[in-house]
Amino acid sequence: MMGLSHANSILGFHAFKKEDWDVACRFDMANGSHKAYYVPNMDVSLDGVVMKKGEKILFEQAFKYGPKECKNLFQRAGVMPIAQFGNCTGEYYVHLLSSCTLEMPTQVTEYVADVIPNVVDFENLWKIWDTVTLSMISQDELLSKPIKLRNALIFYLGHSPTFFDIHLTRATDGIPTEPKHYQSVFGRGIDPDVDNPELCHDHSDIPSEWPHLGEILTYRDAVRSRARAVLAHGVKTRRLAEALWIGFEHEAMHLETFLYMLLQSDKILPPPGVPQPNFESLAHQSALESRESSWFTIPEQQVSIGLHDPDDHVIPKHSFGWDNEKPKRVVNVPAFAAQARPITNGEYAKYLEQHHISSLPASWIDLVPKTADVRRNGYGNCNGYSTNGHRQLDSGASNEFLERFAIRTVFGPVPLKWALDWPVMASFNELQGYAESMSCRIPTFEEVRSIYQYSMFLKSLEDDGALRSMNGNGHGSHRNARVVKTLDKSIEPPAEDAHGNPRTPDHQPVQSPSTNPMPVFIDLDDNCNVGFKHWHHTPVTKHGNRLSGQSELGGVWEWTSTPLHAHEGFKSMELYPGYSGN
After folding, report:
1. For a Cys-Cys bond, which of 86, 313, 485, 577 suits 572, CB 3.0-4.6 Å?
2. What is the number of other CB atoms lying within 10 angstroms of the CB of residue 442?
3. What radius of gyration do the chain's Cα atoms show?
4. How many domains does the chain have?
5. How would DSSP label each residue in 236-291?
6. Which pLDDT band holds residue 78 (cuts at 50, 70, 90)?
């Protein structure tokens, strides 16, 4: 009734008597809003205006948003959540939001609107490229080498436009952008064998002194202007279309290269205009939402791999592809069991502590002086809880162990205790060691594709309600991996495996070999940490009872155990023959 009192105050006289009015409320299911009305309990007349008894006068409409609806709202509004503050029951929250410095499309109709990237696609890519390469590291540090086996950071500022210009020149039978000698300096990077750096492909000569940054940026702008002019005149030949596509893809890939190199630098700067998230608050929220990681039986099925692009003279209908992505082929993948989600930092920490392993993933930082004994005894756990709100069960590492480490992010080191539910970033050998300790293995490439396809199948059942009725409540560079097991068809899987892992949820739907292959491109929903929705990894434990599909790994790539090799029908790209060959 406070509204009536305020109205009286504004009008200057007692126009509305509280005893003459009631308040009626209802929830509008159609648009998800709460509506409140003043309702006179008798006919009320004010300056000739008659309000009939029972007439509803709307005075409040409050929209209610669940977590998923909030994410959609924030994304549409171009803002990103920084922190949230809720009541004790978790029903109401105040959200702290910040404007986004960029927005990358996540729907197929947007991010592959055409086979050829358009000028808007390039401008958006160049915007984020410039943000990362010029604003997240000081100019002096561009000469540093965060990864010793690679070139200095400044190389990539020259390499990306040089590579693009090489292919534009070939496709147009034109002349290189000046200075022409950049092709011999920035044409190809260096990526030697980690175990034996003497083994390395052909690469550009490394100069005794890199060109000045200003000169490199002038060259970059000239190449970009050339690309804009090409796009403005229209693209009619496959040769030119593929040159534009390969230039776009190449720069996007090296954006990732530059970012994971920056993460290895202690001099990294946060992205401008992006406030630092409240990682402690996010960890608490993740702890409340975490679910036990289930195991799923991935049925034997046929999996379609690669692109169909048989004509080297015609622009393809759907997409160009790299040589290792062609031709399209179908493989039969036997049944196997897979963990629902990737390995987390928390799980990997427990593995390191239990097995007294002192070597750390490159994504971790040891906060203890190097003279300290990594394998000391006496790890304590005074109250059974870690500092981020996780209950310290037998499966967790001790508090004292967790306190010693942090995770590298673009915002600086984040305490491990606040990143336990993030996917661990580690090398293949490190994750293989973890898998073997669990009597598991890292999946093959074909098995990973089978997981993605089956995950999409389960989502389709969930969308039409079938999975809900079958499954009850549903419980059941650096990269990550999930672990898998080969199935013995003669043995019925137990309720738990030897390590206490829950088996496949009861009544999991059985799928015959798929006749509907997974599409090449998919919509990337809220479960996909892509497109700079976040500048850090995100928890993967919230959906531990659901099979994680493509791009649902918290912001990391997924390792497979399949070495790169020439599959049947492989043919090197005419445009870039050394892409896979070297």
Report:
1. 577
2. 22
3. 29
4. 3
5. -SHHHHHHHHHHHHHHHHHHHHHHHHHTT-TT--PPTT-PPP-HHHHHHHHHHH--
6. low
DSSP structure class, residue 496: B
Amino acid at 267: K
Instruction: Summarize the confidence of residues 483-504 as an average pLDDT.
Output: 52
The residues near 251 (Cβ < 8 Å, ≥ 6 apart) are: 125, 126, 129, 160, 164
CB 544 within 8 A of CB 290: yes
Q: What is the pTM of this model?
A: 0.76
For residue 64 the two structure tokens come to 């209610």
Residue 79 domain-assigned (yes or no): no
Place of tokens 């050829």: 116
The answer to whether the beta carbons of residues 509 and 467 sit under 8 Å apart is: yes
Cα gap 468→474, rounded to integer Å: 7
Work out whether the CA dihedral 275, 276, 280, 284 comes out positive or negative. Answer: positive
Residue appearing with tokens 């039978």:
173
Amino acid code (one letter) for 279: F
DSSP, residue by residue, 372-432: S-TT-S----SSSB-TTS-B--TTSPPHHHHTTEEE--TTS-EEGGGSTTSBPPB-HHHHH
3-state secondary structure 183-226: HHHHCCCCCCCCCCCCCCCCCCCCCCCCCCHHHHHHHHHHHHHH
Structure tokens at 177: 């952008």
CA–CA gap between residue 247 and residue 506 (Å, rounded): 48
**Residue 80 located in a structural domain:** no
Beta-bridge partner residues of 303: 331
Q: Which domain holds residue 16?
A: 1-64
SS3 365: strand
Give the strand pairing for 49-51 and 44-46. Answer: antiparallel
Q: Is 403 left (phi over 0), alpha (psi -120 to 50) or beta?
A: alpha
At residue 304, the pLDDT reads 93
What the block records as the tokens of 97 is 């939001």
Enter the tokens of residue 541.
Answer: 């434990």
Closest CA to 296 of 330, 347, 236, 337: 337
321 and 230 within one domain: no
CA angle 342, 191, 267 (to 5 degrees): 70
Q: Is residue 344 domain-shared with residue 263, that is, in the same domain?
A: no
Q: Would the pLDDT of 477 be above 80?
A: no
pLDDT tens by residue, 520-548:
889 998 889 998 989 999 999 998 999 99
> Sign of dihedral through CA atoms 385, 388, 389, 390?
negative
Let me know if residue 323 belongs to a domain.
Answer: yes
Based on the fold, state whether residues 468 and 552 are members of the same structural domain: yes
Q: Is 117 left (phi over 0), alpha (psi -120 to 50) or beta?
A: beta
Residue type, 473: N
What phi and psi values does residue 143 have, to the nearest 5 degrees?
-85, -5
The CATH number of residue 223's host domain is 1.20.120
Measure the CA–CA gap between 335 and 273, rounded to whole angstroms.
Answer: 48
Burial class (CB in 10 A: 0-12, 13-18, 19+), 499: exposed
**Residues 338 and 419 placed together within one structural domain of the fold:** yes
Kindly state whether residues 538 and 426 are assigned to the same domain: yes
Alpha carbon distances (Å) from 388 to 407, 419, 437, 536: 15, 9, 27, 18
19 Cβ contact partners less than 8 Å away, ≥ 6 residues apart: none
